[in-house]
Structure formats: structure tokens, C-alpha cells
Amino acid sequence: MGKKKRWYRWLWAIPVLLALLPLYAWQLEPRLLVVKEEQVSCPGAPDGLRIAFFTDTHFGRHYNQQHAGRIVEKIEEGQPDLVIFGGDLLDAYYRDAALLDLEALAEVFQRLEPPLGCYAVWGNHDLGRGAARVYEEVLGNMGFQLLQNEAVSIPDTNITLIGLDDMLLGQPSFDWDSLPKDGVRILLSHEPDLVGALDSSAFSLALSGHSHGGQVSLPFLTSRILPTGARQYVKGWYDLDGASLFVSSGL
Question: Where are the alpha helices (DSSP H) in the chain?
């Protein structure tokens, strides 16, 4: 009985932990800006090529342009050759427009000058929450080229970047036969489940976000809060019959 009593003494902590969980998930964890270095082998890619991939910044009420400087500093420290953004730049522009200084945001990201350029794709928040009318212009002011169902050949390399439209609110499509037969193909799609539905022989590497890594990994709960488009591929690396998919947890 003594052991049982000691065990029950800690039951009070369970509701306290459950109450603190949302605070960690939505207020503390997103501000823990961590850089993860990953290595992937793509036959034919330039040796030592460094790509900085970041996604799901959700600038707005909870994460404003003042945080942009930290993101840019982390990217600059990695000295990337190429910078890629995976979508959802703004959280809810219809709600937060008065709180955001888009010119100041763009000026911060203009500091990025990777030798192979900066590229981006649409996210569902960029299309569906009031940002559709400003997103492409803001990206351009930031120094990023938006890829919407189009490909671009990276100068002085044999790399082709393919950027798909958003799966949920856009119309993703692409003429794969239009691509060069040789070289490395890197696919960009905000939602990873779209990548999983494609013929993996068409690309070498795919980069996605959207899932936020499931926010918090808890049995039974995480699967219920995963967004549509990121329920099959949640975070980290996946082997798609020879091609590699990396799903970032965002910021």
C-alpha cells in the first residue's frame, strides 16, 4: 500500500502537464530556432552543394517580422549555395495585415545572397488566408523567385528545380516530359503527401513542409491533428523507391 500511495501523490501533476502542453507547443517550441544539418546523396549533383531549406514561417500575430533577423542569421551562418523556402510565409494576412510591415520583412531577407539564388513555392496559408494578392510581390522584394508549376535550371550546375502549386488550394500540375533527360531534379511541394502520389522516378530529391512535424508527438493525438496533405509523411526522411523526400518541421 505504501508504494501505491507514493505513486498516487503525483497524480496532481498530470493536469498541470496537460495545461502546459499547449503553451510549449504554440509559444515556446516555435521560438527554439534550431538548425538541422542533413546529408543526402544525389548522383550527379555538385560535390559539397549546400542548400538551406526553411518553411512555414507563418509571420503574423504570433511570429512577426522582428523574428526574421534570427532566421536570416542562421541561414547566413550555414553559407548555403542555394536557399529554398517551402511556403506558408504569412499565417493569416486578412487578420494580421495591420500588424505586419512587409517592406521591413523583405529588407531583412534581402541580406541573403547565395550564389545560386533563392526560390520558393506557394503554401496553403499564402493562397487561402488573404495573402494571395501580396505573396508573389513580397517574395520578389525578398529576392526569391516563385515557382508555380514550373521548373528552372540552376546556372552553372546540372540541377533543375521544379516547384509545384499548393495541393489544397492550388492546381498542382507539371509536364515532366519537358525536363532535361540528364541531371539532378529537386522537387518542391508544400504538402508532402502530394510528393508521395507522384512517380518517384521523375525526381531525385523532394523538399516539403506543412506538417509542423505533427506539433507534438503523442500517441493517438498527433494523428488527429495532422493537416490534410501531411498525414502520410510527417517529418524527416522518406525513401520513395530510390528518390528521397525530406519533410521539415518548419520553424
Answer: 2-8, 13-23, 68-77, 93-96, 102-109, 124-128, 135-142, 192-196, 222-225
